[in-house]
Amino acid sequence: MKRIFFAAMLATIISCSSEEEVKPVQITELEFSSLSDFSVNINCDILIADKSEIQDLGIIYSEVSNVSMDKGQLVSHMETSGFLSRPTSNITFRISDLQKGIQYFINVYVILNDGTVIYGEEKSVTTLSGNRFFKKSHLISDDYNVLNYQSKGVSIDEKLYFVFEGSLYYNDLRFGDFEKLIDLPIYPIFTEHINSKLYFISGVEIYEYDLNTNNLVEKMNCPGDFSLNTTGFVIDDKLYVGTNRYWAFDPEDISNGTDQNGNALGTWSEIDYFSGNVSQSNEETSFTFDGAGYLWGNKDLYKYDKDLDSWSKVTDYPGDTFGKINNLFAFCIDGVFYTNSGSLNDSEGEIWSYNIANDTWKQIFPEDSNLTDLDFGSWSLFFVNEGQAYMYSYALSVYIVFVP
Known about the structure:
By secondary structure, the protein is mainly beta. The protein folds into 2 domains: 26-129, Sandwich (Immunoglobulin-like), CATH 2.60.40; 134-402, Neuraminidase (6 Propeller), CATH 2.120.10. It has one helix spanning 2-21, and strands at 25-27, 31-33, 40-48, 54-62, 73-76, 90-95, 103-112, 117-119, 123-126, 133-136, 151-152, 154-156, 159-164, 167-172, 178-183, 190-194, 197-202, 205-210, 216-218, 231-235, 238-242, 246-250, 267-270, 286-289, 292-297, 300-305, 310-316, 330-333, 336-342, 349-355, 360-365, 379-385, 388-393, 398-402.
């Protein structure tokens, strides 16, 4: 009787040991990052010998614990994560439709081709409530100093593109991948995008780079000469650029012919002369909203109406410290315009918002803020992605992310 019991126990031990050895997938402990009022990133490693065995993967979350495929909101990330094509096991999931100040229980799932569902270890996180500024330090590689340069970033599908010393760089905001894409034949003073095509301008030259085909095409030279103070915006797939003399550029127009590969050279047309009082310092002083272009600087906001082909003054800046910095930024999110002021020699400064439709200003930093150490004299890169503004501070070596 004792032998039978011992044999059964030994068989059980061997069985358990075998199950541990053949476990097909391991999911490391979940880590949370980029927490805001409405969103959070979930980071982990998914360890599997053959990624082709994975049928689906994603996250499950709920306000109630013990989430599973049958209990909680499931978000598949198989198509968007890029996990299968990446050589590493690290993956970052993102949830962006949460509510303020709520505790959520979150887990990662993996479904194998045979239907087996494997979970990680469930963890909980509570979203923030009303805070606006957050620090992100994992988006870029420490091997690059290219961000110590004031530039406007172009954000497309959670990917950032910007130019430094004549080269185009790429930063994947989901995974932190960071690399140089191409050397440009010019040192652009202005960069903008129309759909999946980037445009680079210097002097009278303009180049188009197609992100889908990686083709770089020289377009028709502009009749005017663009200086370092060039600003611009996009309206209806046309590029509007200039200083005081402004020009509209249609990159797909073939009136001036095509190059040897059949690419349209585009056409330029001069628009209404801008005579407003804007101290243009860089392209961050321009943006587009509701089919109109806006220029900002020197306490004045101006609007360009393409249908009337005319400029008009919109509003004055109400703050007291404008003009004390050389790193002006301006961006528009959901009809609200944001801008900064402050001192180059210390961390004092202000950020104000202007609701274009309601014609109202509101100070949001430092009065309505959860951070006190924003260095207003060190901004070097600005861009808007997924309704959030990213501002890189080379003094702090982090991104400061603003959530409206």
